[in-house]
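Retro notes - structure team

What went well: the batch runner handled both jobs without manual restarts.
What didn't: labels got mixed up in the shared folder, which is why I'm recording both outputs here explicitly, each with its sequence directly above its tokens.

Job 1
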Amino acid sequence: MTRRLRGMLVAAVLALVAASALLATRPVQAASLTQVTNFGANPTNLNMFIYVPDNVAPRPALLVMVHYCTGSAGGVFNSVGRDFVTAADRYGYVIVLPEATRDGRCFDVSTPAALKRNGGGDSTGIMSMVAYARQRYNVDPARIMVSGFSSGAMMTNVLAAEYPDVFAAAAAFSGVPAGCFATTNGSLWNSQCSGGNLIKTAQQWGDQARAMYPGYTGRYPRMQLWHGTTDTTLAYANFGEEIKQWTNLNGLTQTPASTDTPRSGVTRTRYGGTGAQPAVEAYSFAGYGHSLPLDGMFPYAISFLGLDGGTTTPPSGAVKSASSGRCLDVTGVSQANGAQAQIWDCNGQANQKWTLTSSGELRVYGAKCLDVNGRGTADGTSVIIWDCNGQSNQQWRFNSDGSVTAVGAGKCLDVPADSTANGTKARIWSCNGAAGQRWTRT
């Protein structure tokens, strides 16, 4: 990391740590954090730390918490991120804490390797940490979140753009849009971006993020953004550019669904909804700089991310075929991997109760997902249930015309020949607008 970058960020980080130290309500034992080695591909030599609370949930959420420049896993754990840790003790979720090891301890959000899915940058190592935690702690793949501060907020934006099929939601404290810090000269510092002078349209910012995962057509994570109006390290203008990017990625305009003031000097705007978990939520702090005014505000982040066990999972219900009025059903009420999906008279049984998660899964029986058999993409590929695994062949998008897109295949959930007969097996097929490809959730 360059001396210039260290010099520009160190004062702001010291203020950040001083302010956030007030949040540490109890001392932390050294054993609270555990370093993990040999966790998988790690091309930039990051360190991995993990926090697993004593009361870890049977199927916990996972939070990736990313530190600021000059920081460390232990530093963010004991200071600015302390409320996330306290909440983990209460709600039983697991925290993964990546740690940068390069000079300056900033995360790379600038080089071509860093700005491409599986490109061999810091993000590649962080995703190895996520995979490690998912495998060992029975993590709920529908509740994987990321949050970070300053450099970590920039990485939060990048991870959410590169791995939208993994992260359900993100919270970035004083960051910049994904791709804003891109450089071509090997430097990790982009003065034009840091100064708030990179201004683009919402479509341009969205396209820049989409280029990090070419060909992906699925949903993007919900995004929560925080910024101070007098930030001179990562200028306040970046806040508006982030809003442009994430409203575009979530298919929204930049017109808020609601605007309010949760406390004096704080303006909150919500896009795509007015509840606690809209598609995009933004907090502007009047008169604050890069020190991040987090005192008393963390509950808003915890609730938005769904780490409090709140409303991240919508209620279960039937998925009805427009061609017959019959329900999407698991054959024979089977819970076995490979059991086929079909249509059948609606009866309210468990094999007809589907939950659409924030990551686009259609879950049945709690832990089984509607799955395109063998990750196939060909017309006629069967639709089955399988253990939920977070892969794109288990992601579905409900469209305004009533069709349901299999994200991995780019084809539609289909009843052959618009059949109305009980026991007709579901499949995927090229989208054509037929009645057998229209569905409603009830």
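Job 2
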Amino acid sequence: MTSDPTRAVFGAHSTTGDVLAGVDLTGRTAVVTGGYSGLGLATTRALARAGARVVVPARRPETAQRALADVAGVEVDQVDLADLASVQAFAERFLRCHSVLDILVAGAGVMACPETRVGPGWEAQFAINHLGHHALTNLLWPALTAAGNARVVSVASGRDPSWRIRWDDVHFERGYDKWAAYAQSKLANILFARHLDLLGRPHRVRAFSVNPGYIQTPLQRHLAVEEMVAAGWIDADGTPAPGLFKTVEQGAATQVWAATSRDLDGYGGDYCADCQVTDGSPGDSGAAARLWALSADLTGLDLIDRT
């Protein structure tokens, strides 16, 4: 370890280029979900520039191909994280072509969408933001363990102590609230990384969750302008609040840092923001284990070897 990742080497204004300066990822393979839009696109570009082979599973492969047409070393495949059969099919194709996976960035997601049911009636935000990534990680586990020093990065959000998993109604069948559902899915991202790291340590697979900060991306596509004005994000003319938003390159920096920094060797399960470990114990370990068990039951996937 070259420095203490809880102390500021990089910060809120650091970019993906800053955190990857001098880093050579030649020979490494990464999967970036959502890797063709917003923060995911910036992450894909950064990892590819550093020499990594990046696989981007996309719900809209043709759109992904266009967005990534100028990026060398990128493969696009099809996946719908709301459809477990699609996730399994992607994982099978990946494992046929790639024996090793060094980096998995679980970044695809939706925010504050209208009530939507997917799969067997699952609430869409919990299903896409969390359950699809739980399934994907389990199915790609053989390649992650083969890497010998793999990283999984779960892209969460700013954490609020009031967030809770709605254990008795995780799919909001008794009254849908788009923001409560989003908060639950982002807490799930944090708890997922915590428990995955616990399971992965014996296999040299470490996991982190990250808060990218405020960034204007297509993630806000379900929000009306009036709602963003009321939240204080923009004014009535659409001008962002001064100092609130990062650039996309700044927003993606923490997940790229968590995926690649050697300063994080020996760490794991941590919640990171502004390219720093902000809390060594993010979330309750009992809640993390309970969420893992619930996710395994819902998806039918709990393939990680605990030996």
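One thing worth noting from job 2: Residues 12 and 274 are 4 Å apart (CA to CA).
We'll revisit the folder naming next retro.
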